[in-house]
Amino acid sequence: MWGGGKLSYFGGRFLGVLGPGCRSSQTKGPRLISSAVYSKNQLSWTLEIKPGVFNEYRNMWFKSYRMTFSCLNRMKSYRYPWTRLYSTSQNTVDSSEVKTFLALAHKWWDEQGIYAPLHSMNDLRVPFIRDNLLKVIPNHQPGKPLSGMKILDVGCGGGLLTEPLGRLGASVIGIDPVNENIKTAQCHKSFDPVLDQRIEYRACSLEEIVEDTAETFDAVVASEVVEHVLDLETFLQHCCQVLKPGGSLFVTTINKTQLSYALGIVFSEQIAGIVPKGTHTWEKFVSPEKLESILEPSKY
Amino acid sequence: MAARLAVSRWGLAPAVYRGPLVSCRRWSGASADTVYDVVVSGGGLVGAAMACALGHDIHFCDKKILLLEAGPKKVLEKLSETYSNRVSSISPGSATLLSSFGAWDHICNMRYRAFRRMQVWDACSEALIMFDKDNLDDMGYIVENDVIMHALTKQLEAVSDRVTVLYRSRAVGYTWPCPFTMKDSSPWVHITLGDGSTLQTKLLIGADGHNSGVRQAAGIQNVSWNYDQSAVVATLHLSEATENNVAWQRFLPSGPIALLPLSDTLSSLVWSTSHEHAAELVSMDEEKFVDAINSAFWNDANHTDFIDSAGTMLQYAISLLKPTKVSARQLPPSVASVEAKSRVLFPLGLGHAAEYVRPRVALIGDAAHRVHPLAGQGVNMGFGDISSLVHHLSTAAFNGRDLGSMNHLTGYETDRQRHNTALLAATDLLKRLYSTNATPLVLLRTWGLQATNAVSPLKEQIMAFASK
């Protein structure tokens, strides 16, 4: 295993767990204004991209936000909830990302192949999720510590994280917009009768299942996903919608820092070739502060 | 239809090149075979203990474990009066492992003998080394193999919901998974039994002895050679009852002879000697046999004046440097008679597998390493393998890992190869060093032994290493 690869990821990473307490309230608000806000929001985001100017990044974002979208501020003071956007099915799936992953769809389960860093990260992610969920379960069965939990793995890819969670006893639904990934995942779990029963895969995006599965999951896991989505706020909002009251949201991603640019993109992609070129774009990396700022205002 | 894949496919994964893989078949379609989580092939001391340890592990509560044993189930209704001639020296580390799944309690309820001191000395000189613990704690235990097996069988029955034992079942064929996932190819190991039935497993553990079928089928290279020695074992009656808590070993030029305590009046003999002499010993009549044993321990015919004076000189020098307690050479208890029909011989050799693990395969016990009995470490190394492998598998299960993944299997391999290689090399070196009465070597080993005996920290290190 390439030890250096591991190091680069751990250096620039943060693992954020939010919850319990992701609550979604039911009041609705005026929709027209909100959709306008959101489309403008997307524009404002692209204007603000200035790699390397991290310290100024946040301030500038807030400034323009305040200037341009004063109406949104007013709405925020009323604490309008996220669910007003039910009918706006914003697409968070980035089609260019889909193309990148389609090319590598059959390589998921080669532990020494392209996805080796993700395999080795399981040593960190699975105990992280398991230990935090065990805090919430009163008496857990030895051997199947997560049994009884329903987990949604968003952007499950080939099922690298879904399978360990299934082995620990949870019922897991894994979703991914790339059909080939789901096929690989499906094929891989079909040989294990226990996993076959506990895991279900669906080739769809989060938006498509948000309405059917509102408030049904004990935990939602979005691991190494948020740096690939188009609209982060909508994505996180949908994640919270499908969570039960008191459920937990687990997000793991690469932090947006100078170090992550140096190690995660320059070294891993261009120099050492640990990660295929074009997998990550630094502009889309998410910092913990940004995640907090998105989720906090709505009291999640 | 099964298709054979060329070995050259391995070239695609250069990072982990593990030698030529014996042909791997493609299985089309899922079969109705049970998929076991772990299959242990070989139900001897080490195989049964492995299955037991996994069965009692908390993270294996809902896993399916299978133990395959070629022989019949041995039921021990009542402990026989006569002691068996096959005994093992169990180190404190192994005793801890056995008590972790409750087998040690059964052994204590049956019978065992603790020894507190070990004297090892040379036939060609006065040099000796005495091992004992500071407060005369138990250094180790002599337990009959049948007693250990019975204790393990009882504990296996206690977890029969997780561990299935198939007696009179021998695996005749293995099919290894392909190195990378392919559509329709099962990622598990397929095992064909003698009666034609097949089963699948996520991890196959080979505990089938030094002629391991699993190791051969996997194509793992084995470094091995036969010693020009056979071991004779017997149960002996001592001429008088003594406290009998000392283990004795004398290195004769033909090979070491050891007396291990079994009870106040009984001891077990392990005499490694040349093939011809061993055959003679087994066939000679009892009186002559007893005389041979006694003279082997007491006879000083191999002493030479030169070596004796050299030894005395060093002893004097040591006593100037540190006021040691003078460990005068003690003599073992004399033997009166031998238990009828208890004399058996078996050949000796050394063996070490180049790799302990392959994807979805692990070797433990004699399948991985075979050693000379002079250090009493054979089964203890096997139990050490079990401790390490169970620790790695338990952590992997709690992390939701695939049990056959090389990630934690290589952790086990590194752990154990480091320990076992050192011990094997040391034992082989000792055997060769003591197989001669050529003067320079005798001088070297005499002085070496005396010096080691004088340096207590060194002795403690040796004991600690052997007690693991």
TrEMBL record, chain A:
EC number, UniProt record: 2.1.1.64, 2.1.1.-, 2.1.1.114
GO cellular component, one term: mitochondrial matrix
One biological process term in Gene Ontology: methylation
Molecular function, one GO term: metal ion binding
Catalytic activity: a 3-demethylubiquinone + S-adenosyl-L-methionine = a ubiquinone + S-adenosyl-L-homocysteine; 3,4-dihydroxy-5-(all-trans-decaprenyl)benzoate + S-adenosyl-L-methionine = 4-hydroxy-3-methoxy-5-(all-trans-decaprenyl)benzoate + S-adenosyl-L-homocysteine + H(+); 3-demethylubiquinol-10 + S-adenosyl-L-methionine = ubiquinol-10 + S-adenosyl-L-homocysteine + H(+)
Sequence positions that bind Mg(2+): E224, E227, H228
Subunit structure: Component of a multi-subunit COQ enzyme complex, composed of at least COQ3, COQ4, COQ5, COQ6, COQ7 and COQ9.
Name under which the protein is recorded: Ubiquinone biosynthesis O-methyltransferase, mitochondrial
Gene symbol of the encoding locus: COQ3
UniProtKB/TrEMBL annotation, chain B:
InterPro entries in the cross-refs: FAD-bd, FAD/NAD-bd_sf, Ubi_Hdrlase_CS, UbiH/COQ6, UbiH/COQ6_monooxygenase, UbQ_mOase_COQ6
Taxonomy of the source species: Eukaryota, Metazoa, Chordata, Craniata, Vertebrata
Gene Ontology terms for molecular function: 2-methoxy-6-polyprenolphenol 4-hydroxylase activity; 4-hydroxy-3-all-trans-polyprenylbenzoate oxygenase activity; FAD binding; oxidoreductase activity, acting on paired donors, with incorporation or reduction of molecular oxygen, NAD(P)H as one donor, and incorporation of one atom of oxygen; oxidoreductase activity, acting on paired donors, with incorporation or reduction of molecular oxygen, reduced flavin or flavoprotein as one donor, and incorporation of one atom of oxygen
Role of this protein: FAD-dependent monooxygenase required for two non-consecutive steps during ubiquinone biosynthesis. Required for the C5-ring hydroxylation during ubiquinone biosynthesis by catalyzing the hydroxylation of 4-hydroxy-3-(all-trans-decaprenyl)benzoic acid to 3,4-dihydroxy-5-(all-trans-decaprenyl)benzoic acid. Also acts downstream of COQ4, for the C1-hydroxylation during ubiquinone biosynthesis by catalyzing the hydroxylation of 2-methoxy-6-(all-trans-decaprenyl)phenol to 2-methoxy-6-(all-trans-decaprenyl)benzene-1,4-diol.
EC numbers on record: 1.14.15.45, 1.14.15.46
Any Pfam family hit: FAD_binding_3
HAMAP family: COQ6_monooxygenase (MF_03193)
Domain called FAD-binding: residue spans: 193-306, 352-425
Key words of the record: Cell projection, FAD, Flavoprotein, Golgi apparatus, Membrane, Mitochondrion, Mitochondrion inner membrane, Monooxygenase, Oxidoreductase, Transit peptide, Ubiquinone biosynthesis
Similarity section: Belongs to the UbiH/COQ6 family.
Organism (species): Propithecus coquereli
Named cofactor requirement(s): FAD
GO cellular component, one term: ubiquinone biosynthesis complex
Pathway assignment: Cofactor biosynthesis; ubiquinone biosynthesis
Catalytic activity of the protein: 4-hydroxy-3-(all-trans-decaprenyl)benzoate + 2 reduced [2Fe-2S]-[ferredoxin] + O2 + 2 H(+) = 3,4-dihydroxy-5-(all-trans-decaprenyl)benzoate + 2 oxidized [2Fe-2S]-[ferredoxin] + H2O; 2-methoxy-6-(all-trans-decaprenyl)phenol + 2 reduced [2Fe-2S]-[ferredoxin] + O2 + 2 H(+) = 2-methoxy-6-(all-trans-decaprenyl)benzene-1,4-diol + 2 oxidized [2Fe-2S]-[ferredoxin] + H2O
Protein name: Ubiquinone biosynthesis monooxygenase COQ6, mitochondrial
